[in-house]
Amino acid sequence: KVPLEQLFISGYLVSFFRGSVGINDKKILEHPFGRDDGSGGSFGHGTRKWNPRMAPYISAKRKGIHITNLTRTARFLSEACDLVFDAASRGKHFLIVGTKDKAADSVASAAIRARCHYVNKKWLGGMSTNWSTTETRLQKFRDLRVRAEMGQLSRLPKRDAAILKRQLSHFQTYLGGIKYMTGLPDIVIIIDQQEEYTALRECVTLGIPTICLIDTNCDPDLADIPIPANDDAIASIRLILNKL
């Protein structure tokens, strides 16, 4: 019997990239989590930047770069998928957080397809831990959207209308992905633990379970389910999110 991890790596990953970049792209097929520059997405950060707690998730060191163990990636991704499936079947609510440029589009696309909430521009401090303030902002956002849709803003003095339109644009940028949230999420999926540390700490404080994409410079102990993989490669991020 072929182990799940082997099937996942040799089958799913390769077939995914065959469809997205072409079967003849040898570099991508050799390194299924390929970076944009053609190097492997299993590549982590430089050995000087690594977190020793990531040692169990690293398979080798090559030219000063740590290599992520893709077998462990497959194992933890499978566990994460089981958790997501079970939680979704029970009507739980998800939030995906990934604000860096390389992750933003993939985060929004995956969240919209899955009909879950997302933050892909900037995590506003206290967004979860100070939920009452976030609720107030969301209500103002909803009210402004209704007024704009009804054409009320166009009937205001130009100065007042301009102020409200700027406010609406600000809300759309930073709260657009959570405009339908009515309470705290049940599970948060985080892309790049380092970049989203504030969001992660808020989840830890509130006891909200997290699924984190972790690179070799991250702390796996801070995530309920860590998924070791390259968190800088667009293809790697997209693949993880699509699978989840």
Gyration radius from CA atoms, angstroms: 20 Å
CATH fold topology of the largest domain: Rossmann fold
What percent of residues adopt helix (DSSP H or I)?
40-55%
CATH class of the largest domain: Alpha Beta
Instruction: Name the CATH superfamily classification of the largest domain.
Output: Glucose-6-phosphate isomerase like protein, domain 1
Notes on the structure:
- Mean pLDDT is 80; it is low at 1-46.
- The two termini are 25 Å apart.
- The radius of gyration is 20 Å and the shape is elongated.
- The chain has eight helices and eight strands.
- The protein has two domains: 1-125 and 184-244, Rossmann fold (3-Layer(aba) Sandwich); 134-178, Orthogonal Bundle (Helix Hairpins), CATH 1.10.287.
- The chain has 244 residues and is α/β, with parallel strands linked by helices.
Task: Please sum up the structure shown.
The chain has 244 residues and is α/β, with parallel strands linked by helices. Helix content is 47%, strand content 14%. GO terms for molecular function: structural constituent of ribosome.
